Structures are given as structure tokens and as C-alpha cells.
UniProtKB/TrEMBL annotation:
InterPro entries noted in UniProt: Acyl_CoA_acyltransferase
Organism: Rhodanobacter umsongensis
Record's protein name: N-acetyltransferase domain-containing protein
SUPFAM superfamilies: Acyl-CoA N-acyltransferases (Nat) (SSF55729)
Length: 144
């Protein structure tokens, strides 16, 4: 269950068996300028697009998946999802490279860009020009 609202709001609407997940943030950007830099030596970008959906993958020199993400465009927004960099490949600009690759698939630059960020990602995206639109709460029913 997900809610653009606080953990407390979600908790108050759910039975006790539901567990609240770590805090996230619904963020948006109308103009988010990202400085493109070349990938580190040996890394390569793959971008696949099927209709309004794009997926970007950064492949490490050893062939492992170093970073990836998806995006989809609607008539009203461009939404990024699951932007992730593997632990051993962080601090190399790979996440930004994924965002830039996905942004290249945008058809309408007038539409807002949206995403849900973790607590760690919130600061990174804020430094890139994104703003928090709302807290984003999530809850799950744990498996027995």
C-alpha cells in the first residue's frame, strides 16, 4: 500500500498487521539540468525503449549490472522509477548517467519530471534541482 502522505497517516488507516516501510519522498522537477560526463573507463550504457517506456543500464567492465533505471512518459508527466546503482559502483556518476539517458527518451520537455526517492536519494536529487512535493509512505503485510 502506498500513499502520498506521512507514515502516521498511512498507519492510522491500516490494521496492525501492516508494517510501515522506510520513509520516501515524492519529488518533482520542471527543469533539472544534469551535467553529462563520460562514463568511467570500461563502463557502457545500454538504452532500450518500447513505446513510452525506457530502461537504461550501465554495464561494468566485468559485465555486471552497475546501475539501472526505468522511465515512462504519459501525456502529463515523465516518471522515473527504480534508479539504482550497485554498492560497488557508487560515487562514479553512474546514477546521473542513467537519469540523463532516460531523459533523452522524453518527447515533451514541458511536462514535469516525477520520482519517488529514498531518504538517501532525497539529498542527491535536491542537489540536482528536484523538490519534495509530498512525503511518500508505504506499507506491506509481512510474510509468515
Amino acid at each position: 500500500m502506498k500513499l502520498c502522505g506521512s507514515d502516521e497517516e498511512l498507519r492510522s488507516a491500516l490494521p496492525a498487521r501492516w508494517e510501515i516501510q522506510p520513509a520516501n519522498y515524492f519529488m518533482g522537477a520542471t527543469v533539472a539540468t544534469l551535467d553529462a560526463k563520460p562514463l568511467p573507463h570500461g563502463y557502457r550504457m545500454e538504452l532500450h525503449q518500447a513505446g513510452p517506456v525506457a530502461r537504461a543500464c550501465v554495464i561494468a567492465p566485468d559485465g555486471d549490472l552497475a546501475a539501472s533505471g526505468c522511465a515512462a512518459e504519459t501525456a502529463d508527466a515523465f516518471i522515473y522509477d527504480r534508479i539504482e546503482t550497485a554498492q560497488d559502483h557508487r560515487r562514479k556518476g553512474l546514477g546521473i548517467a542513467v537519469m540523463i539517458a532516460l531523459a533523452s527518451a522524453r518527447k515533451s520537455v514541458a511536462n514535469p519530471q516525477l520520482l519517488v526517492a529514498t531518504a538517501d536519494g532525497r539529498n542527491l536529487y535536491a542537489n540536482l534541482g528536484w523538490t519534495v512535493l509530498a512525503p511518500f509512505a508505504a506499507a506491506t503485510i509481512p510474510e509468515n
